[in-house]
Amino acid sequence: MPSLYAIGDIHGRRDMLDLMIQRVPFEPEDEVVFIGDYIDRGPDSKGVVDRVLEFKLRHPRTVCLRGNHEDMFLDFLHQQGAYAPNVFLMNGGAATLDSYGLDPRDRPMRLSPLHVGFFQGLRYRHEAGGFLFVHAGLRPGVPLEKQTPADMLWIRHEFFDSDADFGRPVVFGHTPMREVFDRLPRLLGIDTGAAYGNMLTCVRLGEGKVLALHQVRASEVGA
Asked: Could you check whether the bond before residue 143 is cis, i.e. omega within 30 degrees of 0?
């Protein structure tokens, strides 16, 4: 029977993602949800996206969600004006541009069509196995179909400090914590601070609970 997995915020840590993929017994038919924030802060954002694209070829049921950092990157690339000009660079974006060999002063700024397509195709939420997956969280009291992209990408304490019941467990990232934030059967936070020298987390899910927990510590890859 296929398994359901979710992987937390990676933030340019290709080394930690590589080790996670080596360790976890993913099967081709498994459903794997990446919770967003593939880029920024860490040293190899481009390498992370390359690795995720490779992973999707072997695991066609992989789902990739959009994080706030991908949203900022797209805005910066296309100069859409949704964010102040330096917000992306101030939030780790300089490391992302460096990994792509780009200068922030260059215009137009070009990425490979494969990578542009990856970023543009990221989803805001996903439902599978009785779980709801979203990058940052949901606004309490707002129906799912009326949740805004801004909240799904950016919300923090208004979401996970509330007692709201969203009708199914919500798996989220975005807010780094020292350990998995396990408030099941309501909430499960899986950003464990890979960007800050802590851990990258992967969970196997089923029956409304965590069936297996896999983590890679930054110290295991030498940083």
From this structure: no
Domain count for the chain: 1
Q: Which domain holds residue 130?
A: 4-221
What lies within 8 Å, CB to CB, of 170 at 6+ separation is: 131, 132, 133, 134, 137, 138, 186, 187, 188
Taking the C-alpha atoms of residue 33 and residue 11, their distance in angstroms, rounded to an integer, is 16
Interatomic CA distance for residues 61 and 3, integer angstroms: 11
- Residues 215, 180: Cα–Cα separation, whole Å: 10
C-alpha distances (whole Å) from 205 to each of 6, 81, 211 are: 8, 38, 5
- 32: helix, coil or strand? strand
Instruction: Show the DSSP H helices in the chain as ranges.
Output: 14-23, 45-58, 68-78, 87-88, 94-99, 113-120, 149-154, 157-160
Global pTM exceeds 0.85: yes
CATH number at residue 70: 3.60.21.10
Q: Could you report the per-residue pLDDT of 146-190, keeping only the tens digit for each?
A: 999 999 999 999 999 999 999 999 999 999 999 999 999 999 999
Q: In 10 A of CB 72, how many CB atoms?
A: 24
